[in-house]
Amino acid sequence: MAFSVLLADDLYFMRMVQKEVLEAKGFKIVGEASTGTEAVARYQEMRPDIVVLDITMPEMNGLEAMKKIFEIDPQARIIICSAIGQQNLIVDAINSGIKDFIVKPFKPERLLSAINKALEG
Asked: Cα–Cα distance between 2 and 58 in angstroms, integer?
């Protein structure tokens, strides 16, 4: 059975890059979101195995969406993938329970290793 993934990024191009990398390795993309609000709604509908979440998104940023998703499911597996590499944001996100933080631009292997690590743990 393929693991299910929700991709949340306001940039369509970034979602497409992530989708190509993950589908090539057998992951099933069950949803996409371009805002934090959509990400929370899609998570609630689909309950994917993994969420790849950007920080900078309209309506609700990724950190707010992360908190809402953890309210729905404290066991949610969330990976932040963002161009914002501010140390305090990374530390806050990790302390909140995310599985990994990937800084854009990323190498495909980095995304895959973060997802595999999250699924193992």
From this structure: 30
Residue 76, number of CB atoms within 10 A of its CB:
20
* Helix, strand, or coil (residue 114): helix
**Closest CA relative to residue 104, chosen from 67, 65, 56, 34:** 56
Assess contact for 52 and 5: CB atoms under 8 A. Answer: yes
Percentages helix, strand, coil for the chain, rounded to the nearest 5?
A: 50, 20, 30
Quote the pLDDT of residue 1. Answer: 66
Low-confidence spans in the chain with pLDDT less than 50:
none
Residue whose structure tokens are 């631009």? 105
Say how far apart CA 47 and CA 110 lie, in whole Å: 24
